[in-house]
Amino acid sequence: MQLLPWEKIDTVLLDMDGTLLDLHFDNVFWLDYMPQYYADKNGITRAEADAYIKPLLASYTGQIHWYCVDFWSGKLDLPIKQMKQDTAELIRLRANADKFLAALRAAGKHCVLVTNAHRDSLQIKLEKVHLEPLLDVIISSHDYGYPKEDQRFWQSLRQELDFQPERSLFIDDSLPVLRSAQHYGIGHLRAVLQPDSQAGHKNCEEFIPSTDLLDLVSNLQIP
Questions:
Q1: Which of 39, 108, 187, 188 has a CA between 20 and 30 Å from the CA of residue 178?
Q2: Does the keyword Hydrolase apply (predicted)?
């Protein structure tokens, strides 16, 4: 593990799903629960539902629609928000996420949640895990109309928040998002090695992997 130069970091930008929260909920919802619900509702087999839904989802990858509850509710004629509420018992923090945030706050770092999650999903998840007291700002890419994969997201974020990209740390489990942040000029980047606790490690490619969030603050000086 490569230690972070905390003396050069003022702002910590944090993804939600797969970074602070276990991605297991989202994987179960989108890859199993929702296709099965669609199959049952439309009187088709699960294989037929998968054959329709998987390429449809893939066609919107990296776009704001991919993350939009309203878009998929209309596209699939499903009550996506209610379905997420019905499965909310699967929503969990990643290991030590709360302790990690508490350490950042104690050290005086500016903690900003930057998520592609739709505000409806965000509300359901925050009601379950109660992270608001540990965060200074909560940003959904839907507030701007551009996902984190798009440079216009970072430009909009910079207009709203007073932060220096070169003195900021960004943690995410998505490689395209990390590359977008790197292109914008975010100075310190970490990739999440195991975003889904029930799945294996992912290839973080050119980015330094993070296993346990608490390890990242092992050398953080707290007054």
A1: 108
A2: yes
